[in-house]
Amino acid sequence: MIHFDDITSKTVDLYSILSKSLRKSLARTEFTIQVIEEADSEIQEANLLIEEVFPSGEAEEYKPSYVLGSNENGLCLACLKRGFLLGCISVSFDLEEKAVAIHSLAIDPKYRAQKLGSALLLSLHDVCHELGIQSMSLISSEQGKGFYQSFGFKEMALQSYETQLPFSKRVVRKKISDFNHIHGKDKALPEDERIRKKHTREDKSEYSTTFFNRHKRHKQSKKEANTSSAVEIVNPFY
After folding, report:
1. Number of domains forming the structure of the chain
2. Assigned domain for 238 exists
3. What is the pairing mode between strands 209-212 and 232-233?
4. Around Cβ 53, how many Cβ atoms within 10 Å?
5. Is this model's pTM higher than 0.85 or not?
6. Within 10 A of 100 (CB to CB), how many other CB atoms are there?
């Protein structure tokens, strides 16, 4: 049986956990998914990505370094191309309650519409399946409803969304099919020179894809107190 620490310490190869269909889809591209830790060089790239796509003054607590440092069971998965970080998802697990809360999910603006957000969420789903996690929760803005609902999330209260795990087979097949459709048509990806150099970010873009925790800005009623996480999507073109 695989334990949480086996994943975060990279004792277990992440790709041995991912579904066969997702592994095959990623193998057809130059994208890779990997676990990143606080000590990894990629964590700074992930922090800089959060700074780029998050509203000014709201990025700090949504950075992967913050999520990992402030949660005993925090995890960050990153999507890379040729060593450049293009997206990341940061979450925290409640292993006793068999639940996971998404804190942030961000994609490089130049790579929106490449379905990288879906690839990261599917990767997280496979990790959750391995750990026996039964539910996933977050809070989404109005713009993000369609994205989450397409994965089977249902609105519980005050823009709070939750879904039981695993995702339905139909959802997984559809998301992987969409990913393959985009990356199986020889469609041109952004030019290499458009990938920012390490530790350098371009100006913020209003067309970026951002998912982020906003529990401090959304005070919930007692009935809503059971919702454990908060996430917002700024643009659904992931």
Report:
1. 1
2. no
3. antiparallel
4. 27
5. no
6. 26
